[in-house]
Write a structure and sequence with these properties.
Blueprint lengths: L2 E8 L3 H8 L13 E7 L8 E8 L2 E14 L3 E8 L2 E11 L5 E10 L5 H30 L2
Antiparallel strand pairs: 1-7, 2-3, 3-4, 4-5, 5-6, 6-7
Helix pairs in contact: 1-2
Length: 149
């Protein structure tokens, strides 16, 4: 299974970082590429709510997938699962308070049950394209949280 774990330390308490991580409506503000989310059912950002996202992946600038919020433990964990024709994905954000008023945000992306060409291309493309993109995204999250306080 292909996956990646990405960490960033933010100079703000967990509650400040939480307001950016656990609100999918804010995710486009810290995405290095065009990204949007629309709610399909349920109360936004709550467990069980369903959404559709549209964003960039290699070869598809308007890639769609649908997902569901699977966990929300304020202000320490936010998780969702999404799927498209190429497979399914788990995204988990864990927030931990540091001793000096900081927050360490750990983002884990797991590619599950990949299908078709993705089974071959993902292990090649993710380290080259996906990981650098997510590192940029985590840096943008840091900048947004630190700049909002």
């Amino acid at each position: 299974m292909t996956e990646g774990v990405f960490k960033v330390t933010i100079a703000a308490p967990p509650e400040a970082a939480w307001s950016w991580v656990a609100d999918l409506g804010k995710h486009p503000e810290w995405s290095p590429k065009a990204y949007r989310v629309e709610w399909l059912s349920g109360e936004p950002n709550r467990v069980g709510s369903r959404y559709r996202s549209v964003g960039w992946i290699p070869g598809d600038k308007d890639h769609e997938n649908e997902g569901e919020i699977t966990e929300r433990t304020e202000p320490t964990r936010f998780a969702l699962r999404s799927a498209d024709k190429g497979g399914s994905y788990e995204n988990t954000f864990d927030l931990a308070a540091g001793p000096d008023g900081t927050t360490e945000v750990t983002f884990r992306l797991r590619f599950i049950d990949m299908k078709g060409i993705n089974t071959i291309m993902l292990p090649i493309a993710f380290p080259i394209i996906g990981k650098p993109d997510i590192r940029k995204r985590m840096q943008l999250l840091k900048e947004k949280v630190e700049g909002s306080g």
